Each structure stands twice: as structure tokens, then as C-alpha cells.
Amino acid sequence: MLYLSFFVKQSEEFLEISENHGNLRGLLADYIDNHRRRTLKTIAKYFLVFTIILLLISCAGGGKNEKKNKALSIEEHFQLAYSAAERGNLDEAVREYQKVLELDSKYAKARLNLGIVYGKQGKWKKEISEYEKAIRIDPNFAEAHFNLGVAYQERGDLKEATAQYQKALQIYPNYVEAHNNLGNLYFRKGMLDQALAEYQKTIDIKPDYAKGYYNIGSVYREKKKIDEAIASFQKALEIHPKFPEAHYSLAVAYYEKKDFKLAVEHCDEAVKLGISVDPRFLERLEPYR
Asked: How many alpha carbons fall within 13 Å on the CB side of residue 114?
């Protein structure tokens, strides 16, 4: 624009000097008008292009915002469901997880959590169905395999439970709870060495896993290795001093070792922590109080 103003000014000065040269003046005037029109057309063209670019950017931004709002909506429903389940409001949790799945039917974590809620409601068929759907969405979802194993174990299908725990461990070898539960299944079947191996893995992965030490103690007690059992129960209590089952098992182990004072001490602690102690065991301890 500065260039145009300068050109116009210089041309007008020239026209003033050439007032008597009418033809030249006419030619220059025509040239100035044509140049102005071309310049205005160029400006208009660039303005139109600029406007179109702004509109495209605006539309693209709107699409992103729409997707973001949808994602937030799903997450909000998920959080509402999770909070409701934590409060024990299971019906509300089910409704919210169903809303999540209406928005995204392939949300594997929502399928898993809905299955857990169904399990708490005692609806085991729906529970298992949701875990299986989660696995179909994500075959490498270790937590879904684990929970499916728990569901089958609670139904008494130990074979399928074992298979699901093993699948969870193939996906995630350091899955402590899967090793522990697999050890429990081996223990129930009397496969003590296999159970001990699984329990040992739990404390190798997580050295402060009190339950692992407790279960190792249970295997040693079953093997009649009382000193090793006592050491394992004590280790569990070092980590978790208010572990009622560990106190009870120590009481029994000390009684078997004829250390009646410690047997009474740990039995009383177990009772304080809410353990239901076998009345026959209490009778045996009565003379030593």
C-alpha cells in the first residue's frame, strides 16, 4: 500500500507538470486507475483465502472439542461408577458403568469393573460374562484373566480357575496375587511343593508381602516343619503386626511345640483381632492360663 501511495503521488505531480500534454495525462490517468483496480482485486483475493483458512481451522478445532467433550463424558461416568462402588452403592455403579459402555462398548476396564460389581451382587453369570467380554476386547488383559480365575474358583471350577491364573501370569509374570491364588489352588489339591514355589515367587517379587510369608508358613506346618512354619508366621507379623490369621497359626504352632505361654499369647491376640477360634483349641489352652 505504501508503494501504491508513492506511485499515485509521483504520477499526480507528473500530471501537474504536463498539464498541456492532454494525451499523456489521459494515458497516465488510465494506467493509475487500472493499477488501482488490479491491486484491490489482489487484496480481495488474499482476504478471501485468509477467511477460508480461518473457517477451516475453526471447524477442525470444533471437531476436536467435540471428541474431547465425549471423552470427558465417558470418564465422568466411569468415575461416578467407581465412586458409587466404593461407597457400596452397587446399583448406581451398575447404571453408571452401563452408561460408559453405551458410549464405548469396547471399554475393557469398564467391562472388568462392571463384572466385579456383579460379583459383589452375587450375579456370577453376569460377572463371568463381563470378564469374558473384557478379554475378547483385550486378550492380554491380565487383570481380567485373574478376576475370571477368582470367579471360577469361587464357583468350585478349580481347573478353569487354574487356567485363568496361568494365562494372567503368561501376560504379566510378576502378578503377585495370581501367584498367590495359584499357590492356594495347589495347596488345596495337596500339591505342597508346587504351592510353596508359587508362594516363594510372591515374596521374591514383593518382599513385604505378608500374605506370602503366612502361606509359606502354612505349607511348612502341613509338612510338619514347625520351626520353619513359626519363622514364616513371625515374618508375616513383622510386616503386618495385626494379621489375625498369622497370630492364630502361631498359637497353634507354639502349642504343637509345647510352648504354651506363647500359644496363649497369640491366641488371645487373634481373638482381639476378630478371629473365631475353635472352641476345642481354647479348651486345650485353658490349663495354661
From this structure: 26
Distance CA 209, CA 174 (A): 13
The count of other CB atoms within 10 Å of the CB of residue 193 is 9
Of 263, 273, 216, give the one whose Cα is nearest residue 241.
Answer: 273
CA atoms within 13 A on the CB side of 241: 0
**Nine cell digits for residue 133:** 467380554
Where b means 16+ CB within 10 Å and e means fewer, 252-273 reads bbbbeeebbeebbebbbbbbee
User: Which amino acid, one-letter code, is at 83?
Assistant: S
Q: How many CB atoms lie within 10 A of CB 67?
A: 10
pLDDT tens across 105-151, in order?
Answer: 999 999 999 999 999 999 999 999 999 999 999 999 999 999 999 99
Could you tell me the pLDDT band of residue 51, with boundaries at 50, 70 and 90?
A: low
SS3 content of the chain, % helix, strand, coil (to 5): 85, 0, 15
Separation between Cα atoms, residue 264 and residue 254, nearest integer Å: 9
- Alpha carbon dihedral 245, 248, 254, 260, in 10-degree steps, equals 160
The identity of residue 50, as a single letter, is: F
What is the rounded distance in angstroms from the CA atom of residue 238 to the CA atom of residue 214? 11
57-89 per-position pLDDT tens digit: 555 554 444 444 455 589 999 999 999 999 999
d(CA 98, CA 111): 9
Whole-model pTM: value is 0.73
The answer to whether the beta carbons of residues 93 and 117 sit under 8 Å apart is yes
